[in-house]
Amino acid sequence: MKPKTIILCILTLFCAGNLKAQTRVLDTLINVGTYNLHFHIIKGKGLPILFESGGGDGGAVWDSITTLLHKRLGATLITYDRPGFGKSGLDTNKVGVVNDIEGLEVGLTKLGFDKKLFMVAHSLGGSYTMVFSARHPGLIKGAVFIDTSTPCYVTPKKSEEVLASYATKMDSFKRELPGVYYLLKSYAETGLRAAEAAPKAKMPITVIGSDVPPFKSSDNLAWKNCLRLFANERPNRKYILAKNTHHYVFFDDPLLVAREIVILYNKVRYK
């Protein structure tokens, strides 16, 4: 086991005991119109942090890092399952990034988290965060993007290639993993919506790129270059290469990710 992993395990066990004694956790299903959206909230104070998972992941993917972050910040931490994932329902007549975000908006409003937010996004969650922020100028005070997709990388051509690579699995996805099926079917639309929204993402952003992106070809270089390009597009963005990490940077180097979230959060929390 890696030293950083051992440290995380120790911290997680320590923090878990403190969480039970010092915090309240809300695990709930919120009706957002035609389906229920599952939220898991560690209650705290100050600017709430909303986590946006990558494609194919539910909110539980953040469990270790939220435990670590709550100990350091004491903030309210909000994770949720995107429609069709985890405990969330799915309306197959209302799919795609815009419909998904509309459901998220309803859920956050019902929970009382529709004023100011800090966001942490991973992979495809970066596209969702850009679309969400464009719909609510000024709502998101800052964000940390962890090895996220970018408009530079997710072009219409790349979207076609991604969908083609899953062509033989789509029928089984539709039967067994409908969330994945509709996410892939909407992949091109998500890329286009994110490209439209990206210029409006004016909040401070820390971009953390992995050392080894999630591909096995020259796409690795394109992914890394596009992340750097995205970070350099505005003066209030910062790029960090997380050495010796893979796509799930917050698994491989949780202390780095937590540190960068804390740094940016403390800069914007009172704005």
UniProtKB/TrEMBL annotation:
From which domain of life does this come? Bacteria
Could you say which residues form the signal peptide? 1-21
Q: What's an example of a GO molecular-function annotation for this chain? A: hydrolase activity
Cite the InterPro entries for this sequence: AB_hydrolase_1 (IPR000073), AB_hydrolase_fold (IPR029058), AB_hydrolase_sf (IPR050266)
| Keywords annotated in UniProt | Hydrolase, Signal
Question: Which residues belong to any copy of the AB hydrolase-1 domain?
Answer: 48-175
Q: Does the record's keyword annotation contain Nucleotide-binding?
A: no
This protein's GO cellular component annotations are: membrane
Supply the Gene3D superfamilies for this chain. alpha/beta hydrolase
Identify this protein by name.
Alpha/beta hydrolase
According to its UniProt entry, this protein's organism is Mucilaginibacter conchicola
